[in-house]
Amino acid sequence: MEKRYIITTILLLAFLLPSNTIVYKDRTTEALAETRIEYYNYTYMVYEKALLVNKLDRVVREYVYVSIPRNTSRVYCRILNIEPKPLRFESDEEGNVFALIFVEVEPGDKLWINLTYTIKVSGYKVFLKKEEALWPPLDIARIYTDDSIYWNIDNETLRNLAYNVAYSDNPLETAEKIARWIQDHLIYEITGGRRGSDHAIVKKGLGLAVHGDCVEVADTYVTMARILGLPARTVFGFLLTTYEEKHWLNASLQEGMNLLTHWGGHMWVQIYVPPWGWIDVEMLEDLNQPKIGDFTNLHVPFGVEGRTFYGSGLLEFIIPSYLELEYIELDFRRGD
Fold first, then answer.
1. 3-state class of 66 per DSSP?
2. Model-level pTM?
3. Which residues contact 196 (CB under 8 A, 6 or more apart)?
4. Containing H/E element for 21?
5. Which residues are bridge partners to 88 per DSSP?
């Protein structure tokens, strides 16, 4: 998209920075050693609804998990209403939050789930200096450079690719080289589902390319980063083009690229680089320039995946077992 550039179907953890802070009306500037960080806050009012359908020939009684934007020092979500009422809220090992709702749906019937909440997002820009960048401590590296079902760090093609195009003694140089290679070798197509980096890398002429949407872009980046010892994980949420817009998706339609005109579900990457901690990497907001540590408040993060996985980008928002998600809509408006 232009600004959305290319978004797909389908958190930001804090920088724990001892510093001097100067607060402006809607901007905060923070200093860490020689680095300057600026924050831009915005609050959204979100009206979300999802339609579940029972396509089985029996009554379905089950628990549905509904993703709630998790609170961090850069994201604050306040729930105003959920119908049907949740039994409780649960969180996984990475701190992702879910409303647990029990439902009972007759054969052929449908059920609406409605949510209203506000979410304050702190966009930021880190004026990074490569000479300040450090490689991660062992405890972080052990967890976030491991392999997974979507990030096969033993794939010989990906290993050779990572070392050939992005090896560096500096973690920020590695981060930038991976992002630029992916941008320069991307065949963008909405694929749906999630194939992992093994199937995202394809032959193109005499070389290689990344084929897919933002999910494949993120999974390929995380795999290459982890191969080179750079801790990385994915973030799922939304990337908006304006501060007030409605996003919807009908799961029964095969829309192809037309999906981008009304759905901004998105996945991007975070890398761990001391002394800044987790910083965001965005490759699809501006295809001419990867954005590292430059995170607009048009991003609305819901959760992270570093050790826990939920499948496709769509399933991360509403997770039923036997019911099927037919339609989902999020209406973003200006909050207080």
1. strand
2. 0.87
3. 149, 150, 151, 152, 219
4. strand 20-23
5. 100
Could you give phi then psi for residue 41, rounded to 5 degrees? -100, 145
Kindly give the residue spans of alpha helices, DSSP state H, lying in the chain: 138-144, 156-166, 171-184, 197-200, 214-227
Length of the chain (residues): 336
Give the pLDDT confidence of 77-99 residue by residue, as tens digits.
999 999 999 999 999 989 999 99
Token representation of residue 296: 């607009």
DSSP string, 139-152: HHHHHHTS--SS--
Whether cis (ω within 30° of 0) applies to the bond prior to 84 is: yes
Q: How far is CA 196 from the centre of its chain?
A: 15
Which CATH number fits the domain 20-334, given the four candidates 3.40.50.1390, 3.10.620.30, 3.40.50.720, 3.30.230.10? 3.10.620.30
Distance CA 309, CA 261 (A): 27
Tens digit of each residue's pLDDT (9 = 90 or more) over 198-215 = 999 999 999 999 999 999
Contacts of residue 156, defined as CB under 8 A and 6 or more positions apart, other chains included, come to none
CA distance 207 to 17: 42
Boundaries of every domain in the chain: 20-334
